[in-house]
Amino acid sequence: MVSLVTHLPKAGQPGEADIAAWLQILAQRRPEKEIERLRHAIEVARRAHAGQRQIDGMDMLLSLLHTADTLDRLKLDTDTLVAAILSELPGEPDYDPVRLRQDFGEAVQQMVEQVGRIRALSATSAHQDGSNVEALRRLLLDLAGDVRSLLVLLAKRLRLMRNLKQLDPALQRLIALETRRVHAPLANRLGVWQVKWELEDLCLRYLEPEQYKTLAARLEGRRSEREAFIQQVVERIQSLCREQGIEAEVMGRPKHIYSIWNKMRQKHLDFDQVMDVRAVRVLVDTVSQCYEVLGLVHGQWRPIPGEFDDYIAHPKPNGYQSLHTAVVGEDGRPLEVQVRTRQMHELAERGVAAHWRYKENNRADPELERRIAWMRAWLEQQDGAQEAPVDLPAEEEYEARRIYVLTPDGKVIELPRGATPLDFAYAIHTDVGHRCRGAKVNGRMVPLTRRLESGDRVEILTAREGGPSRDWLSPQGGYLVTARARSRIRQWFKQQDHDQHVQMGRAALEREFARLGLPKPDLERLAEHFRLKGVDELLAAVGRGDISAIQAANSQMPEPSEDVAEAAEKAILARVKERRPSPGRVSGTVVVQGVGDLMTHMAGCCKPVPPDPIVGYITRGRGITIHRQDCRVVEKMDAENRSRLVPAVWSETQQDSHFVADIQLYAQDRKGLLRDITSVFANAEIPVLGINSQSDRREETANMRITVEVDDMAQLGQVMGQLAQIPDVIDVRRHI
After folding, report:
1. Where in the chain are the domains?
2. Residues 229-253 as b or e (16 or more Cβ within 10 Å = b)
3. pLDDT at 42
4. Which pTM does this prediction carry?
């Protein structure tokens, strides 16, 4: 663990002699110029915090020196130590960030500011549920524009935990819970293992006091016996190594009480079954010597089957390398032996190559791992023990692509960088987004287009009723960046249009049935007739114009009495039925009253499809053209051309027929939209004869007219329904 051996007093006020002795120790590894900076920082802190004490009663200046001492033992640079000494200044009434920047540099001033923000936010963790604590950890990582500010935070927390016994039990538990939830995992992710282990042990001491005492007592109760045994093992391994000419450093391995407790709890083991209660570690110079020592150990003691792990040939996912084995000691109890090179030991102890996901067993998160990798690369670069300089990734690699903002009650919400209060509102709840009318960020009113930053506390102001604005969808407006929010708004407008179409369809049906003197329509029967799911779908289809009110009325017309004209029509129809269809697909079969064998073709202006009401037009030399009865061309005909119109109906048999129809589609333009549309037709095996698309770059919308070949209106309606379900499609209708 981080060494507790220090020349600083543990209590009282630090005197000049104490400070001088501490700075003299630091001067062994730091130039005089940096020592002067530290001395200046101490004087500033002394004046600012005279007579002040920490929450645990420790003198404020002494607590800051202990924090800086911990960071020194982690081999951090002088800027970090200076920032630690000055880290309590923002709470002082005469704090001047400009003066701080002038005296100590921008890096120190930013670290001091970041430590203050991170500490304030981390204090909310004890009241969060497990999932939100994870988001809070990410928020704290994101706030650390300088990774060193997190290390200052951890060192301050470690100092507090070491002195936690001075507080009342309720406060002890609250601080320990916060530490276990936030600070220990942060140390884990940064790979500062020594800090992590000590924080975990101290948390266990205050959160599980009885179990901690029992376990500590069992370790302490056999301490003399265990130490004597370990000393014998150390001397024997040293002797074996000397005989082989191997320069080895052998030591008893420090006990991590929390890990022993956790292993017993997870694996349901008794204390005597934990293999690493008695353990030694052997440090050598080369990898080949690691395996030589392993052979010596196995030759001296009997290995326990299944307890050997070669993390040199097969490193752990966190980059950790070492040989682990367990053997049976002379007393018949297990002994763990770890063998590694000195470089492997340095990496394992300071953890700059550690991988937090291995320990926390979380799912992969490339975005978070990218930033953690940058932090560790920076830490590794500061390590003077490294034989070669470490290539530091570009600084932009540390920039976060996600932000973490807070609700008024402290819940953390994750959003993409550049997100706005409106994105935040939709992330909370769709209804909150729809009714959003304003926002406060950190207590101040802001525009809905303001870009949020990590750590912002956002409050959404809502109306009791109402919905979103179409302006929110405009890319130029800058209201939204999240696809979720855009999708919810489009769905709202699509639903509003649907409701409007239902009302229009109901009115159109009532008007047409009244005009024809028909009884009130049976809407359920009509929906079944047109193969629609329900009454609302029928009314919406009529309102959109997919089904005309005339079609609906005609389908409900009573059967007329048979007369001569009808008899003639039936006779013609019978002849049509008897006629054998020509090979291949045909363009639809119709019956024209009063005409024998005839040639017909469908009009390109209105493209009729059964069961559209139709009429025939006798052309000059091209047979009869079939139009919809409500075709604009027919409606604009003069008297002479109207005389050429003849009654026509669809044949009851449309075997192998096909019909051309136009579909009008309006959508928010995006990459892959056309691919999604054409795949619908491909899956339905509907031929696409042509696509005419127009894009509006300013509004980022696309307006398409798609010409397709269908068997009947039911098939057309079905494919239009599938098109309407495509993301970003705003409207689909038949073009007439």
Report:
1. 16-207, 219-360, 366-397, 401-481, 491-555, 564-650, 659-735
2. bbeebbebbeebbeeeebebebebe
3. 93
4. 0.52
